[in-house]
From TrEMBL:
This is FecCD family ABC transporter permease. PANTHER family: FERRIC ENTEROBACTIN TRANSPORT SYSTEM PERMEASE PROTEIN (PTHR30472), FERRIC ENTEROBACTIN TRANSPORT SYSTEM PERMEASE PROTEIN FEPG (PTHR30472:SF24). It is a multi-pass membrane protein. It comes from the Bacteria. Pfam families: FecCD. Keywords: Cell membrane, Membrane, Transmembrane, Transmembrane helix, Transport. InterPro entries: ABC_BtuC-like, ABC_transptr_permease_BtuC. Its main location: membrane. It is found in: Cell membrane. It comes from Cohnella cellulosilytica. Belongs to the binding-protein-dependent transport system permease family. FecCD subfamily.
């Protein structure tokens, strides 16, 4: 008779640093990272100049023709890495908000932080007249942070509750969407077209100069999010339980919201608002691992989805580079419909 196992299996690492890793989460993370790396190699191969795996590897490790190295390292690699890092950022941001609100719809797409970043970018482009990358990125970052603080203050009443945060966020998002439409309608046609194109969300033409600062910021914040994982898990048990563990609930919640907002605003500042990833990746990872204790599988799922969507955007229409936001928005609509249908069936 096989032995009876109670609970989940863990991998224990002994040494100077002792760790206990959930075996299933580790396996899912490893598989997703392997799939993402395979997609990354494929993403470096496709384009107007088709390359093989040996040519890509030679370009990455410095033994290739100058033209091949330029195509792979300077043109395609920033896009591939940005898709993976930004996807991980959006997924972890969504996981934080869904944990804080205890609702699978509590992502920055739904609550309104993405709309705030878009509003900030529109103000920079249409009101301030700035078309530089620094100006638009700064506007998007400031807009996202300002929207987060406004939603937090309006939702605060002897503390904040997840449901109230979602309701206030949806209301603010609706107001900002109307304001964005007014800004676009009152601006010049050519500027409005540029702003609208940015608002779709795209990685087309991204460079190291644009992506590297945002990617470094995201990596630092992912470390901060991992450090806040234990307080977040305690807060999921309720405020009383969290306080019993010595956690300052409101201070911790505010810190988590700021981390999650910047994780959303940094990719948005570079690529524009990209939907679906923050909404779906945490829930898909949760279904695969059956555990919400780690951000690692969530980040790996976000990287895989974002990179897969970007590659699909390049292949849907031959000869045309669609914005990745078009693909994620289409998939996100189907996913959101499925979530709402499943919740309606559970309620009935």
């Amino acid at each position: 008779m096989p032995p009876v196992r109670f609970g989940r299996r863990y991998i224990r690492l002994k040494g100077p640093v002792k760790l206990r890793i959930d075996a299933k989460s580790f396996a899912v993370t490893a598989i997703l990272l392997g799939a993402a790396l395979a997609l990354a190699v494929f993403g470096l191969m496709i384009g107007s100049l088709r390359l093989g795996v040996p040519e890509v590897l030679a370009a990455l490790f410095g033994d290739a023709a100058k033209m091949t190295r330029t195509v792979v390292v300077e043109w395609r690699l920033p896009r591939v890495l940005a898709a993976m890092v930004f996807g991980a950022a959006l997924a972890v941001s969504g996981a934080i908000f869904q944990s804080l609100t205890r609702n699978p719809l509590g992502s920055p797409d739904i609550i309104g932080f993405t709309s705030g970043s878009y509003t900030g970018a529109l103000i920079a482009m249409l009101v301030a007249g700035s078309t530089s990358f620094i100006g638009v990125a700064s506007g998007a970052l400031i807009g996202g942070l300002a929207t987060a603080m406004l939603i937090y203050l309006l939702a605060f009443r002897k503390g904040t509750q997840g449901f109230r945060l979602i309701i206030v966020g949806v209301a603010i998002s609706t107001i900002l969407s109307s304001a964005n439409a007014v800004l676009l309608l009152r601006s010049k046609a050519e500027v409005a077209l540029t702003a609208a194109a940015w608002g779709v969300g795209s990685l087309n033409g991204i460079s190291w100069e644009q992506s590297l600062p945002a990617m470094l910021t995201v990596l630092l914040l992912l470390v901060c999010a991992a450090a806040m994982g234990r307080p977040l898990r305690a807060m999921e048990l309720g405020e009383d339980a969290a306080k019993a563990h010595g956690i300052r609930v409101e201070r911790t919640r505010l810190a988590l919201i700021l981390i999650a907002v910047v994780l959303t605003a940094a990719p948005t500042a570079v690529a524009g608002p990209i939907s679906f990833v923050a909404l779906a990746a945490p829930q898909i990872a949760l279904r695969l691992t059956k555990s919400a204790r780690s951000f690692a599988p969530v980040a790996a799922m976000g990287a895989f989805i974002m990179l897969g969507a970007d590659i699909l955007a390049q292949r849907v229409v031959p000869g045309t580079l669609l914005p990745v936001g078009v693909v994620t928005l289409s998939l996100g609509g189907l996913y959101l419909t499925g979530v709402l249908f499943r919740q309606a069936r559970s309620a009935s």
